[in-house]
Each structure stands twice: as structure tokens, then as C-alpha cells.
Amino acid sequence: MPRGMFGVRGSGDTSGYGRFAPPIARSDTASRPYGEPFDTVMDALEDALGPTTTDAVERVVTHRGELTVHVARNHLPAVLSALRDTESLRFELCLGVSGVHVPADTGRELHAVYHLSSLTHGRRIRVEVSVPDSDPHVPSSCGIYPTNDWHERETYDFFGILFDGHPSLTRIEMPDDWEGHPQRKDYPLGGIPVQFHGATIPPPDQRRSYS
């Protein structure tokens, strides 16, 4: 049973308390049977990919009722196309591309995560690609899901993942001349002084420390 702040049980801890005890241990690699509808989805995906499945799918993770398929980056377009176009899958909608920076994951520090939804079958799936910080290239998915034009630009802006084949991979949030990628874990805290009604607040890294 989850336990949150002030003895609250049975709900997520949204307080920032930091001592939330998750009730389910995560497994990094799942094996069959995954449970339905995951087995049905993976059967259809493997049929669509054929003999390339072994090279394309690195591992499968099931956690909290969600399915995540880790894919080799050079096979990403084929996997996304199969998920979209196969009649028994029909993941027509990509809800976005998220970036994740995991410095401790040596050789796979940068992750691009695609959240797909099937309006036809009422299912969701997550596709994840991991690349090294030294070679942060991932094929663009804009030709498969056109709205990812914006999502890939944001992920590039904040995490530095380079989406090869993107029609215009430019920053979307930060100024064009901004140095670095602000949502990486090793990005300096930084900040600028803020003036408010005559009072000046220094940047976070220049404020008084209470530790």
C-alpha cells in the first residue's frame, strides 16, 4: 500500500515530501507472457517486423499497467510505421516525444520516448530509444507522425538529441544563441537576478545556503 505524507495511504504523494514508498518494484526487462493486451500487441508487432524483430526490439518493460518497447535507433522508423499502419495495432496518434537524461546509464545517457495511442483499439504504448551522449543522433519521426515536428524540436532544445531528417531542427523554447541544453542533469543551475518592487533576488546558485 502506498504511504505518503502525514500517514496518507492509497494515493500518490504530491506533497514533495520525498519519502513516498512505491508499492511495486520495477523490472527492467519483462518476459512472456506479458498479460493482455500486451501479448496481442507484441504478437502483431513481431509479425509486422518479421525477421528484423530481434535486432529492432532490445527489450520490453511492463510496469503499472503500461507497456514500453525499447527499440534500436536505426530501426525506429520501421517500428513506428508498423505500429501506425498494421491493422491490428493502429497507433494513429503520437502524443509527444519526451527526453530523458540518465548520466549513470553509460553509453545510453540520452533517451527519446514516444507516447503512442490507438484510437481504433483504445490502447497505449510507449516506444523508447537510447543513445550515447557522444553520438546523440536519432532518426526523425516527422514523416510518420507530422506533429512530432514540434516535439522533436523541444526535445532537441532541452536535451540536445539530434533528430536526423527533421525539416528544421531549431530551438523552440530557448533563444537561438543559447548554450547548452537546460534539462540535462549536468546542466548548471544558473539563473539571472530578478527585481521585484525594489528588491533584488539573486540567481539560485548565488543565494544563501542553509545546509
Automatic annotation (TrEMBL):
Domain NADH:ubiquinone oxidoreductase 30kDa subunit: from-to ranges: 69-191
Subcellular location: Cell membrane
Gene3D superfamilies hit by this protein: NADH:ubiquinone oxidoreductase, 30kDa subunit
Reaction(s) this enzyme catalyzes, per UniProt: a quinone + NADH + 5 H(+)(in) = a quinol + NAD(+) + 4 H(+)(out)
Keyword check for Lipid biosynthesis: no
Keywords for the protein's UniProt record, in alphabetical order: Cell membrane, Membrane, NAD, Oxidoreductase, Quinone, Translocase, Transport
Pfam families membership: Complex1_30kDa
InterPro entries xref list: NADH_DH_suC, NADH_quin_OxRdtase_su_C/D-like, NADH_UbQ_OxRdtase_30kDa_su
Stretch list, region Disordered: 1-33
An example molecular function term from Gene Ontology annotations: oxidoreductase activity
Membrane topology: Peripheral membrane protein
Enzyme Commission code: 7.1.1.-
Origin superkingdom: Bacteria
Family: Belongs to the complex I 30 kDa subunit family.
Function: NDH-1 shuttles electrons from NADH, via FMN and iron-sulfur (Fe-S) centers, to quinones in the respiratory chain. The immediate electron acceptor for the enzyme in this species is believed to be a menaquinone. Couples the redox reaction to proton translocation (for every two electrons transferred, four hydrogen ions are translocated across the cytoplasmic membrane), and thus conserves the redox energy in a proton gradient.
PANTHER family per UniProt: NADH DEHYDROGENASE [UBIQUINONE] IRON-SULFUR PROTEIN 3, MITOCHONDRIAL, NADH DEHYDROGENASE UBIQUINONE IRON-SULFUR PROTEIN 3
Oligomer and partners: NDH-1 is composed of 14 different subunits. Subunits NuoB, C, D, E, F, and G constitute the peripheral sector of the complex.
NCBIfam families: NuoC_fam, PRK07785.1
Protein name: NADH-quinone oxidoreductase subunit C
UniProt source species: Rhodococcoides kroppenstedtii
